[in-house]
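Each field is set out underneath.
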Amino acid sequence: MSLFSHFKRDSLPSDAPLATSVSEQAQTDPGTAKRLMEELYKRNAELAVRNKTMALLRRLDEISLKTLEEEDMAKEMTSAVAEEFGYDLTALSMVDAATDRLRWLSISTATPWIADTIKQIDLKGSKVPIGENQELMKKIG
């Protein structure tokens, strides 16, 4: 359904442009102008979010194509997500099916004091057992 579909065009000459009909109706009915502006604002906000998401997906795609090592890829991806959305903390992990453990690949942040703390964490030595947590296994599997 078009943004302008609820405006009546029947009362105007058939050669009148749609913008003119909307403008004329907005002048005669202040509520119409307000509804139109609210709808335009809402759609612009949705478009901005969609564009930001698409830009991040493109950036993640570029990272995945240029990086071969999973640790390097994970670090760049978590950094990209943290920077783009301003998250205090982003993490990427994988399930090691052989050991039923969650293996952390990367933790990133856009916040400097958290970044200093993350540098002290040994991710390679951090493995979380998940075999007994059936609820988590259902979500992962």
In short: The mean pLDDT is 77. Helices lie at 18-28, 30-66, 70-85, 112-118, 134-140. The longest strand covers residues 101-108. Strands lie at 90-96, 101-108, 127-129.
